[in-house]
C-alpha cells in the first residue's frame, strides 16, 4: 500500500464525522471550470476588440436628390 493510500485510509474516517452529505458545494472543480470559462471569454473579447480595430469602414455617400421638375 502506498503512502498516499495509507494516509487516505486513515484520514477519510475522520472527515466522515463532519461531512454533511446534504450540503453540496461546487468545490475546487467548480472554481476551475468557472475560471477557465472566464479566461476564455476574456481572450475572445480581447481578440474581438483587436479585429474590430482593424476594420476600415467608409459610409457610401448618399445619392443626390433628384432635381424638381419645373411646373411652367
Q: What's the helix and strand layout?
A:
Blueprint: H1 3-18, H2 27-54
Question: Which structural traits does this protein have?
Answer:
72 residues, 61% helix, rod-shaped
Summarize the structure.
With 72 residues, the protein is mainly alpha-helical. It has two helices and no strands. The longest helix has 28 residues, at 27-54.
What does this 3D model show about the protein?
- The chain is an all-alpha fold and 72 residues long.
- The protein is built from 2 helices and no strands.
- The termini are far apart.
Structural class: mainly alpha
| Low-confidence sequence ranges | none
What is the terminal separation in angstroms? 110 Å
- The shape, in one word, is rod-shaped
The major beta sheet can be summarized as: none
Number of H- or I-type helical stretches: 2
Extended strand count: 0
Oligomer: single chain
Mean pLDDT: 82
Please compute the radius of gyration using only Cα atoms. 33 Å
H/E element sequence: HH
Strand content: under 5%
The helical percent reads: 55-70%
Amino acid at each position: 500500500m502506498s503512502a498516499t493510500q495509507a494516509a487516505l485510509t486513515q484520514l477519510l474516517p475522520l472527515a466522515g464525522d463532519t461531512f454533511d452529505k446534504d450540503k453540496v458545494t461546487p468545490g475546487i472543480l467548480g472554481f476551475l471550470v468557472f475560471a477557465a470559462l472566464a479566461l476564455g471569454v476574456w481572450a475572445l473579447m480581447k481578440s474581438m476588440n483587436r479585429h474590430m480595430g482593424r476594420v476600415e469602414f467608409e459610409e457610401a455617400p448618399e445619392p443626390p436628390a433628384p432635381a424638381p421638375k419645373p411646373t411652367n
